[in-house]
Amino acid sequence: MLLLAALLFYEQSRLESAITNARAANSAYQYSQLERDLLKAALICSRGGIDPVRATNLEQRARLAVHSFSFPLLAPESRRTLERLLARLEAESARAWPCERLEAWADRVHPIVIEATEVSSTVRSNLLVQLRAYRRDTLFGFVIVLLFAAAYLYYQARQVLGQRRRIADLESEGAFKTRLLGMVAHELRTPIATIVGFSELLDDPGADHRRYLKRIQNAARRLGQTLATFLDLYRLESGQRLELERRPVRLGALIAEAAEMLQIQFPGRFRLEPEDGEVVVVGDEGRLFSTALNLLTNAAKYGPEGEPVRIRLACKNGTARVEVYDGGPPLEPEEAEAIFQPWTRLARHRGREGHGLGLAVAREVIAQHGGRIGWEARPPGQVFWFELPCENASP
């Protein structure tokens, strides 16, 4: 089988060489056309000058000659002559040349036309010999045997690859489920402990019930968003599309709610800039809330401690844009692209809470809403943003 493959590769290389020679054998025409156009331009020049169209055609003719298949077969001096001619035509218009220079260049090109004709004749002769040898050496039986061998190998390879792919899918699915269960247990522990702890404190008659209830509500909301993120991730890993419950959503109010929810964990960190008008988008409110919550959490968690996280929302030309700015050191472009992939954690973020899933799910959510999400450096900090089709922006 290896010998047959080697023979096939050898015959194919000979055929490609023959095709190249066939193209080179028919390229001498370009040089004679260049000489003719130079002489014609010199004659017209002596009668009153060259118009811009003819000057451009002369440059294009020189370019075709330099890029023809027979050009590498010419003598080095001939190639340099043609390249200098093309460079001068590109650098300055032929209209500004004296007529004598056009004639002089035509005289230089004339020997190249003769040389190219001789090269074409030699190439044609060699091509005929090469094609005869190719037909003589290519046996019909060899092709038949090779086709059967290739078909058999292809069938076997397909079978092996299919089995390996099924095994890998089963192993990957099992590992994913195990990993997901471990993360669910880890992520749910904190909000559940918060709910239980503050619920017990409500028994104290002197307790600040309103404050404790607020913390319980935030923890429960965070618990629901975490579960929703994991469910979305499982659907995406299974190749399913997310089922979006679309309805009008006031984007400014949604972002303000996400910022308020995080105030307990990151007090005083968020600055929401005023909107020009109320921005309304059509989408799944829960998933858009999770996306906003994820961007705000990342900015507060990975940005400099005490540095405010600025949030800007605007609707322009039918597109709503949300920008979350933090003053931390900007990421490298390669890092910014990597963090939108699932299970990716940067070296600088290791040791902090997280699993590298939020931005991956957020990118898919925004994409299925018909929008975009991305990152850009804005020294001394950086901005994570997403865009959605804007329903309206009323004052």
From TrEMBL:
Provide the transmembrane region boundaries.
Answer: 138-155
| Keywords assigned by UniProt, alphabetized | ATP-binding, Kinase, Membrane, Nucleotide-binding, Phosphoprotein, Transferase, Transmembrane, Transmembrane helix, Two-component regulatory system
Where does the record place the Histidine kinase domain?
183-392
Any one Pfam family match given in the protein's UniProt record, by short name: HisKA
Which enzyme class, named as a word? transferase
Does the keyword Kinase feature in the UniProt annotation?
yes
Q: Name one GO biological process term.
A: osmosensory signaling via phosphorelay pathway
Under catalytic activity, the entry for this protein gives:
ATP + protein L-histidine = ADP + protein N-phospho-L-histidine
The EC number on file is: 2.7.13.3
GO MF, one example: phosphorelay response regulator activity
- The answer to whether keyword Nucleotide-binding applies is yes
Its protein name is histidine kinase
